[in-house]
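To the team - fe (iii) ion complex, inputs and output below.
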Amino acid sequence: MTGQTEHALRGDYSRMRPDYTVDQDWDAYTSAQHDLWRRLYARQAALVPDYACEEFRATLATLDYGAGIPRFDAINAMLHPATRWQLVAVPGLVPDLVFFEHLANRRFPVTVWLRDPEEFDYIVEPDIFHDFFGHVPMLFNPVFADYMQAYGRGGIKAHALGAIEMLARLYWYTVEFGLIETRAGLRTYGAGILSSGGEIRHCIESPRPNRIGFDLLRVMRTRYKIDTYQETYFVIRDFDELFAATEPDFAPYYRELHALEPWTAATVLEGDRVYHRGSGAARPPAREASNPRAST
Ligand code: HBI
Ligand code: FE
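Output:
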């Protein structure tokens, strides 16, 4: 919840515990909701072989949760032994510091509500389909799992240093919209892309966006769009690169960046490792984009 929201958050925040967790209340999902889940899952699972990274594909195949809205308990029984992460249910977006505290303790907050059928292609806030389909498979990867915890710890520090905006850009351009170089070409590991019917193709096949090699300070200095497809994607070579980049203390980086104007989402710089320079043609309207965040 970086920045302001113009509207009240969706979700029932009346019964949560102090750490914003709730019970999933799986029995309350209707058969129409399970059916909507199946349709969302079927569409995305069909796209995964061509566009998702190997790590995501392998886990999705073994988890096999396309039959209906999954029970968090059942997933935790597999996830905890794999990487010592667990899912916790939350009403929706939670305050930044609460979010970071969960990640720092290897707990991933998953929203309990599912979008309405009219929102099949686009939702304003992350729902259970985005949180679960997009994020959970990657938590089974040991290196990525450690990166997420490091991000949570970094978030707590950034909060104290007034630097959440910069760290949020890192999350956005990696965890939500990151690309990875593979022998088969560019693939995605970003949850915002993996849970989107349109952007999953667009991020890899469209001539419009820039695709640029990941560079930590460059990413933390780059603004992002929340209501259109991304104008720039950053490409990592592997998850070790990502984890290694986030190991140093960020405090000196924040001091440096605080004095500098951020780049726009469309900027290509002299020193960029350019995989593809975007054609810059018109972007699709908001209704086709895959925004997993209420605001920035
Ligand atoms: N809360 N439930 C939830 N999910 C998120 O992804 C999330 C959040 N609160 C804050 C937040 N993300 C981001 O703004 C931070 O990563 C900066
Ligand atoms: Fe997300």
